[in-house]
Amino acid sequence: MASKLKLRVNGVTREVDSAPDTPLLYVLTDEMHLQGPRFGCGLSQCGSCSVLLDGAEIRSCVTPVSAVNGKSVTTLEGLPQWYAEQKTLAKAPELHPIQQAVIDEQAVQCGYCYNGLIVKAAELLSKNTRPSDRQIREAMNGHLCRCGTYPRMMRAIRRASEMMRDAHSGAETTAADETELAANATGDSAEVAR
Q: Is the model's pLDDT at 52 over the cut of 60?
């Protein structure tokens, strides 16, 4: 039985008329006509359907729409606005830094997995703007790319990290920044992405 639910998707509150157990992915793609999240496996194993729920990555193919009622969902399309809100920018950029870095590094081949990879990378960079290679690999674990573009995605994430730091380079280095730098100086940068 369908019921009216209120979802905040990409900063806009929307009312949907779906059965409570309908996968969020179907609501986003079929009712809201968003093209970021993709159906990959339907089992929460590939990451193609990833979205952010209150800033944390979830797999929308197995998340019932009722579980996100009243919460904030961010899709690939909403990442620039989400980034602007996080950084308290007056205006959202055209692209989130990770989206621009993926383009700059030509990290996408067939494009099927990129939604999940970008959403997960955006979540990682929101928590750690200086991730080591090991931290990047650990965060991206569970996101499958059939074309094997993992090394290019690693470069894109590193580039986005630099872009984000450069955008805020006028700010003083804080004690938290120094702690983060020390924690990441573990020699991981010499490791090669698989």
A: yes
> Which stretch of DSSP H or E encloses residue 17?
strand 12-18
How many whole angstroms separate alpha carbon 135 and alpha carbon 158? Answer: 11
Report the predicted TM-score, pTM, of the whole model to 2 decimal places: 0.85
Report the alpha-carbon distance of residue 61 to residue 24 in Å, rounded: 6
Query: Tokens for 76?
Result: 């690939």
**Gap between the terminal Cα atoms of the chain:** 46
Write the CATH number of the domain with boundaries 3-77: 3.10.20.30
Distance (Å, rounded) from C-alpha 9 to C-alpha 143? Answer: 23
The domain 78-170: what is its CATH number? 1.10.150.120
Residue 188 — very low, low, confident or very high, per pLDDT cuts 50/70/90?
A: very low
